[in-house]
Every structure is written in C-alpha cells, then in structure tokens.
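dumping this here so i dont lose it
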C-alpha cells in the first residue's frame, strides 16, 4: 500500500488503542476492508448527491477537501462531518507542493486545516497531497499522516460510469484505498455500483484510519 506515515501516526494509534476502537473480536468473522476516498470537494451539486448515496447505502468514506472550496461551501463540510465521514486535507488550491517554496507549501496545508477546524471544531489528521507529490522537507513542518491510494479510478478523466466501475473491480484488493472525486455525476452513480458489487464479494467500507491503523 502506498502511504507515508509521519509522527502523527503513533499518536493516533495510541488514541485508538486507548479508546478500544483498535480492538477486534477474535470470535467474529471479519470482512475484507476497503476505503472509498473523494478528492477536490466540496462540490455544491455532486457532494450532496454523493452524501445522499452513501447515507442510503450505510457507507462511511473519507473526503479530502480543498481549502478554497471549503471557504465557499462550509455547510457541505459540516454535513460531511455530521454524517460520520472522515475529513482530510487536500491543500488549499491543489498546487504541487514539492514545487512550492517551503513557506507556501506549509501555508497550503495549515490554511486548509484552520478552515476545516473553524467549521467542524476538529483539525484534520490526514493529508493527501495534490498529485500524490509530497515535499520531503515538510515532514518536520507538518505533523500529519500522508495518505495516497492503491486504486486510481481516473474518474475525473473518463467521466464514464462503466470505466470507473471496471477500474475498481479489476484492481481492488483487501485493505485498498480507492481514489475517486465527488465532483462528477458519473462518480456518484459509479460509487453506488461499486458499493453493491464489492459488498457482494464480502467487502466492508471503512474510513482510511481503519485501513492504516488496524
């Protein structure tokens, strides 16, 4: 699995163990886990549609939000939180962090964290850098967990329902993180089909923290 774990990982794991959420029932038959993640939101039209679809299916997902969109649609950010999904940071403007001066790269992250905190009362612990491109020197500046992905649906490129579903079904494995976006109608409809298909194969959908720390 492609992910970078920084200093925050140890703190998060200790918190989970202390609360008992990292414990499993040895007598139960565990289902295979997979995480749906959505980048670049919130989108004023399709994020609410995605939330409605996830609620109907009883599925929790992870939303990596852009700060500039958070500023525009705070009510959708609040809805994401209230409906039990995990919120992560996707920078402020979707710029390639490794190509920015250190101060600007840190500002992209910290500004978005502050915006999300101002709406939800919670600072994000998870960061998905745009393009999956991390600035190595930021490790000492940003105390967050970097989250990349295992299956890239390329839904933003194809905007083709069938291709998105096929991409997942051909490549997904247990404990994978699936990359999607919540800004397209085809991504919403494909998500519903993906959920149905993977649940039939014995998968359950979790947020990324359950993939990374259990």
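and the seq i came up w/
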């Amino acid at each position: 699995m492609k992910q970078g774990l920084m200093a925050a990982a140890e703190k998060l794991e200790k918190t989970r163990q202390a609360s008992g959420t990292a414990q499993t029932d040895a007598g139960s038959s565990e289902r295979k886990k997979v995480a749906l993640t959505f980048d670049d939101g919130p989108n004023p039209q399709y994020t609410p549609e995605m939330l409605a679809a996830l609620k109907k299916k009883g599925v929790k997902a992870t939303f990596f939000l852009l700060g500039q969109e958070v500023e525009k649609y705070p009510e959708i950010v609040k809805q994401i939180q209230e409906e039990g999904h995990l919120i992560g940071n996707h920078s402020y403007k979707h710029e390639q962090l490794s190509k920015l001066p250190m101060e600007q790269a840190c500002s992209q992250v910290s500004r978005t964290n502050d915006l999300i905190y101002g709406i939800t009362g919670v600072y994000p612990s998870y960061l998905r850098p745009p393009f999956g491109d991390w600035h190595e020197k930021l490790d000492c500046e940003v105390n967050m967990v970097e989250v990349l992905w295992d299956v890239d649906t390329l839904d933003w490129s194809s905007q083709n329902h069938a291709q998105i579903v096929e991409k997942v079904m051909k490549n997904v494995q247990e404990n994978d993180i699936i990359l999607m976006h919540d800004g397209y109608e085809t991504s919403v409809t494909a998500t519903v089909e993906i959920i149905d298909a993977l649940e039939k194969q014995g998968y359950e959908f979790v947020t990324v923290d359950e993939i990374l720390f259990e």
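Residues 1-28 have pLDDT under 50 and may be disordered.
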